[in-house]
Amino acid sequence: MLEEVRNSAAVGATSEEGTVMDELRQLEQAARSGKLNRREVLKRAAALGLSAPVIASLLAACARGEATPTTAPAAQTPAAQTPAAGASPTPAAQASPTPAPAARRGEGGLVKLLWWQAPTILNPHLAQGTKDFDASRVVLEPLADVNDKGELVPILAAEIPSVENGGVSKDAKTVTWKLKQGVKWSDGQPFTSKDVKFTYEYVINEATTATTISNYTVIESIETPDDYTVVIHFKNPNPAWMNVFVGPYGMILPEHVLRDYVGEKARNAPFNLNPVGTGPYKVKEFKPGDVVVYEMNENYREPDKPYFAQVELKGGGDATTAARAVLQTGEVDYAWNLQVEAQVLDQLEKAGVGVVEVIEGVNVERILINMTDPRKEVDGERSKLGVPHPWQSDLRVRQAYALACQRDVIANTLYGRAGKATSNILVAPARFVSKNTSWKFDLDQAAKLLDEAGWTKGPDGIRQKDGVRMEILYQTSINPVRQKTQEIIKNAFEQLGIKVELKSIEASVFFSSDPGNPDTYAHFYADIEMFTNGPSSTYPLDYMVSWYGKEDNIAQKANNWSGNNIERWQNEEYDKAYEQAQVELDPKKQEELFIKMNDLVVNNVVVIPLVHRNSVSGRAKNLTGLELSRWTDETWNIASWRRSS
Amino acid sequence: MTQYLIRRILISIPTLIAISIVIFTILALAPGDPLAELAMNPAVPPEVRQRIRQSMGLDDPIPVRYVKWASSMLRGDFGYSFRSKSPVIDLIRQRLPTTLYVIGTAYVLSVLIAIPVGVLSAIRQYSIFDNIATTLAFIGFSLPTFVTGILFILVFSVKLGWLPMIYRTTIETEGLAGLWEKIKQALMPIMVLALFETAALARYTRAAMLETIHQDYVRTARAKGLSERAVILRHALRNALIPVVTIVALSIPGIFTGAVITEQIFRVPGMGSLLISAIRDNDTPVIMAITIIFSALVVLFNLIADILYGVLDPRIKYE
Hints:
The complex is a heterodimer.
Chain A: H1 2-10, H2 15-33, H3 38-48, H4 52-67, H5 90-95, E1 110-115, H6 130-137, E2 144-146, E3 152-154, E4 174-178, H7 193-204, E5 219-226, E6 229-234, H8 255-258, E7 281-287, E8 291-296, E9 310-315, H9 319-327, E10 334-335, H10 342-349, E11 354-369, H11 395-403, H12 407-415, E12 419-421, H13 443-452, E13 456-457, E14 463-465, E15 468-469, E16 471-477, H14 480-496, E17 499-505, H15 507-510, E18 528-533, H16 541-544, H17 572-581, H18 587-603, E19 607-620, E20 623-624, E21 642-643
Parallel strand pairs in A: 1-9, 1-10, 16-17, 16-18
Antiparallel strand pairs in A: 2-3, 4-6, 5-6, 7-8, 8-9, 10-19, 11-18, 11-19, 12-19, 13-14, 14-15, 20-21
Chain B: H1 2-29, H2 46-55, H3 62-74, H4 88-123, H5 128-142, H6 145-159, H7 175-213, H8 216-223, H9 228-257, H10 260-266, H11 271-280, H12 284-312
């Protein structure tokens, strides 16, 4: 980012811009050396009238300056600082505040990563799990990626389109991406706009059966006026234009390699196991379900990167031994997704070999409340729309449920660093997070609400009304933390006089889309169920669709339970807000809409949010430059990972 | 003999077909699908997963799916994995060497240790050696591999730091140092498996040997004035080994399918861990391929064991 500002300064800079540049340089230096704290940097940067991304990279420098004042300056180069292609690198080099000893490509030797679920395929558009996206991202790149603050960082794009620079049309129906020039695929072929267009054609072909297809259905057509310009025409004004060709689902495929493998033939492409990409590495060896070994891509556009000559991504095993390998024996440099019990993790970290990295996640562990009756079968389906639940359709009962959830106890004892109690279903990005909700644990008030609703304790202590007993089935997937959560909640419910039957289902069954299996989360043949979910992008329409009440969006037999709305909750106000959010371009109004949607779901207790989950990983003490982001793959900036001495 | 062989081989064909039908049906009836991992990803909505499910043919009637699978199987085509889209045969090729090396070594070791230990235990029944061996065998036999595996990791990797706990097939170190690394990482899984196998086999050998030592013909051999050595090795051992050989032969298919639990603990990329992850992912083509290979091996080694029996024991005639 800074480099780009500098480059623009080098190209016909006015004197005024020049002074800004000087101040910026000093500011950056101050931030790096830890002289200024974040707040001061922010103040001064704002005074200079800098754009948000530049400030962000400053702050990043600041954070590193505060955290590790001893790291090599080169390690502190934010990934965003890619010199614009074609611009001479000299001004940037001169402008570098503390000239780092030029890092030599590949001097870091081998870095070992451990994913306890092994990648099975390296074509991200056919991926079947996070691990596949993560492993693909080392080789392939999107036009832009998203940093932890939710800002776009140009990767294959020369710059991020915006209304100001003319990249995004006023009605957000057309978006123009300018691409970096001189980028080559690892086999030496040039990367052009044709590859971007090809990626769209590849994914959108239904016979390809791409898992990422839904990100591309909003596109009307794509034009490529020249080799370095891509013009995307959307079917409708699209406030979520930044979900296309960006992040894990937006990696660009090489046309010259996959031309003959579109549609039916997609699965037979050698590319799936040995991809050709523009990223810092290429695949040396891949054994699906076991290990990927990457070696440097000699054609990578940044001459001093990557720092590591080889990357080994080993898969398999379980989270606990993975944590052990990185935190205790130091056999690996980085381990992903350490879903390990809080106290075990703390104890392993005491060994002092590795460090636990926690970043705030986007997911919320929640309890869904069924609005329909799971016991009554109508036309061959239970939990059918239009057959209301005998007591959960009463708001007071649902409020009582929510008051009986000890969210802080669950978060502190079961999740530890991996989560905190929350009252929202939408917890990221920051601008969409509601401040209007709250939660509390209060059994007395809960009991009062149940009494008011007419559900009073019978002789056996179970609440009943008109001969119907309040006995509920509570299901979730098999996972130690979830079973303990169930216990805590069951305990509180039984104190209220609600009988709870627990059920735990093997994850691969619970989460499957098998229409013939009544145990899936989508059938929801239970009163309440629990799992985790969250947005996949910074404009989270695809997540908020979970409560959109249109008939065909309700999970039911008619659509093989492939609707997104599992609770079968319908609310006109919500639907209006959701439809408006699909076309709203004004950032202020967007915020209002998403916060409103969140509040409607929370205040109507369609869902009881429990824990805002963090993503927890482990790294060797000397591995730096990770810049993990909640919005994208953990490997997104692996070119900048370094080992500090 | 020839007639017997032909008859046995002909019987094995319907056996294998029956096995494949049973396994395929169970798998098809089992819930779950290969796309569950993307369920909680809003970028991949349920209808997309549904369509991919259909493209894999998971919603077709079971007989149709079976006939499709069986006909390509007969052409020698194991099909493609649902997950990695690569030919199943390639996945098996990648993993077989590792399994043969680790599991095979463990089996050979256990045979080499168990038979002498079992024989000595039997000859010196109730001696100190026998007591120690029997106790150890009992411990090894009753401790599951996941307990010993984790115990070994705690002792040798965490406490002492001698051995790695992650098995890597990608070691590139040259020369002797590289060889040592390769041996080092295989030590723990081999020890865990060998301990378990040795214990079982030593107990069989001891029991078989005890039975023969007290036979009349052994007493006759001693009465003839043969040396104790000749009596034990030539007369008693040969007969005692007949059931042991059968057991060893019947456990050979296990070398090819790997050791599921041990491989999982040490992240050994062998057939066992392939099978487990395929089951977890509902990757039907991979599961079918491995189980069919395993069934064929079991049938084959049953036949081999029966033939060996005849070679070792002249009393058995194949009519």
